Amino acid sequence: MNMKTLLGTAAGLMVATGAYAADLPGEAAPAAVDYVKVCDAYGAGFFYIPGTETCLRVKGRVRAGVTYTNNGGDLNDNNDNVQMRADAYVGFDARTASDIGVVRSYFEVAIDDDTRDILATQAFIQVGYVTVGRQDEVANGDGLYGINDSTWAPGDFTATGASVLVDNLGGGFFIGAGIYGNTDSTTRPVLWESGEQAEYQLSGIVGITGQSWGSFDVSGIYRSFDANDNDIWGVKATANLKLVERLSLRLWAAYQDGGDGGALNNIAGEAVENITDLALAASYQVTDPLAVYAGVRYQIVDAAATSAADDFIYGNLGVDYELAPGLNLQGELDYGAQDDWNQFSAVTRLVRVW
């Protein structure tokens, strides 16, 4: 057989093979697998846990920076301090629709900036309006804007307890109440023990939100400590106003009474009997990535003659710049003073959120 015959035979075999192959049924293409299916029922970032109807969101934050502090006045001996600081948290938010409403569980762990301990900062279950577990209390503790925002302490803590928050009364009105252990300590709270006075905090709030002009609310707290007249009660009114485009304003006033037991302190940490707080803060969005803010808080105190406490003024001035989505560079100056005590600090840090 010559070369031409061999080539012709090979070509014929190739054509025949191709023809037979074209007649054979091919295998079906594999179906695409959704390894992560987006859940849009509860906002951005949620996805379905595979094989379930539960939606999960994993969120977190990392902060790292440096702080300079000058402690002045006779009480502070005029010393300077520079610290590197870092903290972080990660939270897991799981939600499932049910016949009794949305069943939500939230768990959050954080690295404490001071002790370096890893703490379960929040752990609660929420069904409809009811929340039980370790949670932020319902009272509004908002202070100024910024890093050192000088919050209203009785309304700004996390503790184990139970609360009800009804936020769909119509017209933006809402109301809430809760009972908690009387401290934000990570130890297990004891509300009552035989032969002892109950120790707890009651918190309540009523307000209106979602308005074109902003929001307004009134909070109240009562904290029972022990049998030594250490109970604290307080009220706070907060207005968050939208004056013009890009400009936000916060005004609040509060009163606290600490009884005679010395359980109440002013911003400087000095024991007082009662405090009247007045505060004003403003934030302006200069450009989409750049915001500037400033605020001032004044405390009028009533203290025993033996206490070093006096009226206290505190203010801050800061800037917040978004370097990239979820990454911000922040800087702030703070100053606080009372009679023979003053403190100045400067902070700069990077913040990453997701």
Automatic annotation (TrEMBL):
Recorded topology in the membrane: Multi-pass membrane protein
Leader sequence segment: 1-21
Source organism superkingdom: Bacteria
Location (main, coarse): membrane
Compartments in which it is found: Cell outer membrane
GO biological process: monoatomic ion transport
Domain characteristics, as noted in the entry: Consists of 16-stranded beta-barrel sheets, with large surface-exposed loops, that form a transmembrane pore at the center of each barrel. The pore is partially ocluded by a peptide loop that folds into the pore lumen.
Name of this chain's protein: Porin
Function: Forms passive diffusion pores that allow small molecular weight hydrophilic materials across the outer membrane.
Keyword list, A-Z: Cell outer membrane, Ion transport, Membrane, Porin, Signal, Transmembrane, Transmembrane beta strand, Transport
Organism: uncultured Pleomorphomonas sp
Stated family: Belongs to the alphaproteobacteria porin family.
GO CC field: cell outer membrane; pore complex
